[in-house]
Specification:
The complex is a heterodimer of chains A (112) and B (548). Chain A has a three-stranded antiparallel β-sheet, with no helix packed on it. Chain A has two domains: 61 residues, Alpha-Beta Plaits (2-Layer Sandwich), CATH 3.30.70; 42 residues, no CATH class. Chain A is globular, with a radius of gyration of 15 Å. Chain A has 112 residues and is α+β, with helices and mostly antiparallel strands. Helix content of chain A is 12%, strand content 29%. Chain B has a four-stranded parallel β-sheet with strand order 2-1-3-4, with helices on both faces. Chain B is globular, with a radius of gyration of 26 Å. Classes of the chains: A alpha+beta (112), B alpha/beta (548). The interface between A and B is large, with 31 and 40 residues.
């Protein structure tokens, strides 16, 4: 399912030639569309890697969870930190699960 | 790294249980050595510090003391001899953030937390070239060329090179930090503002295991940090697990930091910044508000209560500025031509029955720079808090010429437990002051302790003066506590002016206090109410979902 761009949050990366979502999409599917907002070129070719969702500085992209996994209201949202990503999964019943995944290979200095 | 706890010399009782604090610090794996050194703000104290520190591979120094900024400036020149790299040094204002803000039992936990955050920041510090750059530093390797830093730099110091990567023009960079806050890849840093360091500090916050929510409050250096410190000195106590992080401006706080804090279990992140006031350093408040709106929308979608992250505006006392005497103003509008901030507007005012064109100041825009005052041909513009007349009086007073004290002028001198007796001839100073008309000169041996002020209060008797000049040492170190003890001794209605103990300085200070134009009241922020509401709301929300 294609990424959904929240038009009120997307600022087109200030209408650069290559907004961040376009830079990062491995399938070359994201681009600037009408009104200088991001848009996915081809819905069916998206393979839900969520790179655009993670890269967007405004968190303006939401990926629809594929229907084989979860129906329409289900959500999977990443929140980017400095060395971690915090994932929140809301399933169709509204149950919430969260994970914090470290994205850097530094030694864990947070424990004392 | 080493942690040094400072202690006031001859303190009658230890306000903070040092033994217990040292014990807690010994459990901190980052700390190799924790000691107590007396009187760090003196030459002997610095000498003792130099002897105690052995630099070396993992050198780092965290000093926990009273006045953080003056002590930092005092110790900075010695860093090289100590073998401590610039970025591995921090001073934690233990007195303000633990003793005063969290009185009683909570002080120990607050002190330990504050020091832990500092040790985490120092451990994460790394010189990646920002100190040599002296300005904002961009790590090109991680840059995505999104150009947000270029967009948001208020002085256009950030420009693009031929490849499309941003570079910082050092001569223009104001080190405001807006770029640091804007970068979605967190690759920009200032010499004293590194996202990794602040993040490391935030991640060690665990709270005290009680039900009190853990709150991180970002405070800005020009306004809310000193204002909050002043409020704490006046008696404001902060909620149990509230920890302060100082940044250059709200616009310098990167949203990844908020994300890190929340994912580590911090219950709430507050931004204390300016609001509609003359500060608005580089419109950091607008940038922060915009980024926060974005983040809150994401939090909402993530089923995290949006009000965990809030921007609290600090209403500034708009008492600075320029006062215009409309009777003198001839409407030439030279001030408007020279004002760098566009703070002058032409207006019609009725003066002596006739409508005249005069120049008015826009309160919120005026930055009290004084250029209009210097340019005004008729002398109609005067800066509030410092008039030409006052400056002349101060100069006169400094030359001991024509100083006319108001009846009831009181001067309090401190001799620092006798230590200043061989440097200042107090009896000579006292007789000079009396000759010039100061009728009450009080001598104290310890104004940096509460007992000193109790004795001053007793000596003043029933008749309290309106103003009092205090001739003591180091106002920047001891000022806040002197004001606090004076207030506690019953002298809150008396206005205090601080100066060094010499006759000319005392007269200058007295002249300055006399001529200052008082405008309005200090607009207090209902901060205590705001914080209490936030804590109550957080308790209703329950603990941060990430803590489960």
């Amino acid at each position: 399912m294609p990424p959904k761009v929240l038009l009120n949050k997307c600022d087109g990366c200030k209408a650069e030639k290559e907004p961040l979502c376009e830079q990062v999409c491995p399938g070359n599917l994201m681009t600037l569309g009408e009104g200088n907002k991001a848009i996915c070129r081809d819905d069916r070719d998206c393979w839900d890697c969520m790179s655009c969702t993670k890269a967007c500085p405004q968190s303006a992209i939401e990926t629809r969870v594929p229907y084989q996994i979860g129906y329409h209201p289900a959500k999977l949202i990443p929140m980017m930190g400095t060395n971690r990503i915090t994932w929140t999964c809301v399933d169709i019943n509204g149950k919430v699960e969260r994970w914090v995944i470290k994205t850097r290979n530094t030694e864990d200095e947070d424990e004392e | 790294m080493e942690v040094v706890l400072c202690r006031c010399p001859g303190a009658q009782e230890n306000p903070l249980d040092e033994g217990r604090l040292l014990e807690l610090l010994s459990k901190n794996k980052r700390v190799s050595k924790a000691v107590v050194i007396e009187h760090l703000c003196s030459a002997e104290g610095v000498k003792r510090l130099t002897e105690s520190i052995d630099g070396g591979k993992d050198a780092g120094l965290v000093v926990a003391a009273c006045a953080a900024d003056p002590l930092y400036r005092l110790l900075k020149p010695h860093l090289e001899t100590l073998g401590i790299p610039r970025q591995a040094f921090e001073v934690v204002p233990i007195r303000d953030w633990a003793l005063w803000a969290h009185p009683g039992e909570r002080a120990m936990n607050a002190a330990n937390d504050a020091i832990r955050m500092a040790t985490a920041r120092v451990k994460a510090s790394k010189d990646i070239g920002q100190w040599n750059a002296g300005s904002a530093y961009i790590n090109k390797l991680g840059c995505d060329k999104c150009k947000r830093c270029v967009e948001e730099c208020p002085v256009k110091a950030c420009v693009l090179d031929e490849d499309g990567y941003p570079i910082v023009k050092q001569e223009l960079c104001q080190r405001c930090g807006m770029c640091v806050g804007s970068c979605p890849k967190q690759v920009i840093s200032l010499p004293d503002l590194r996202i990794e360091e602040i993040s490391a500090g935030l991640r060690v916050l665990k709270g005290d295991g009680s039900e009190e929510p853990t709150i991180v409050a970002f405070c800005c250096e020009p306004l809310t940090f000193p204002a909050l410190t002043a409020k704490v000195a006046q008696g404001l106590t902060l909620p149990n697990n509230l920890r302060i992080v100082k940044v250059s401006c709200m616009g310098a706080v990167n949203m990844a930091l908020v994300s890190d804090a929340l994912s580590s279990g911090v219950d709430s992140v507050l931004f204390f910044g300016c609001k509609d006031g003359p500060c608005r350093l580089r419109q950091g408040d607008e940038l922060a508000a915009r980024r926060l709106d974005n983040l809150r929308e994401t939090l909402d979608r993530m089923m995290i209560d949006m009000s965990r992250v809030r921007y609290i505006g600090w209403p500034e006392a708009v008492s600075d500025g320029v006062a215009v005497n409309f009777a003198r103003c001839n409407g030439c509008l030279t001030c408007q031509a020279v004002c760098p901030f566009g703070a002058v507007e032409a207006a019609e005012k009725k003066v002596a029955g006739k409508n005249r064109k005069v120049a008015e100041r826009k309160e919120l825009t005026c930055r009290s720079c004084g250029v209009c005052v210097a340019s005004c041909p008729s002398g109609a513009a005067q800066p509030i808090g410092s008039s030409d007349r006052q400056l002349m009086d101060e100069i006169d007073a400094a030359c001991w010429d024509g100083f006319q004290p108001v009846a009831g002028e009181v001067v309090v001198l401190c001799n620092c437990m006798g230590a200043l007796n061989d440097k200042i001839d107090f009896s000579h100073l006292e007789s000079n002051l009396r000759e010039e008309g100061i009728d009450r000169v009080l001598l104290s041996d310890r104004l940096c302790a509460p007992e000193g002020w109790v004795k001053v209060r007793e000596a003043l008797g029933a008749e309290l003066p309106h103003t009092m000049v205090v001739g003591a040492c180091a106002e920047e170190f001891f000022g806040p506590r002197m004001r606090k003890y004076a207030r506690e001794a019953g002298l809150s209605e008396v206005e205090l002016g601080f100066t060094e103990a010499s006759a000319s300085e005392i007269f200058s200070c007295a002249a300055r206090m006399k001529r200052a134009i008082q405008v309005g009241q200090e607009s207090g922020c209902e901060l205590a109410v705001c914080l209490a509401e936030q804590v109550a709301a957080l308790k209703l929300m329950g603990p941060n979902p990430f803590r489960e």
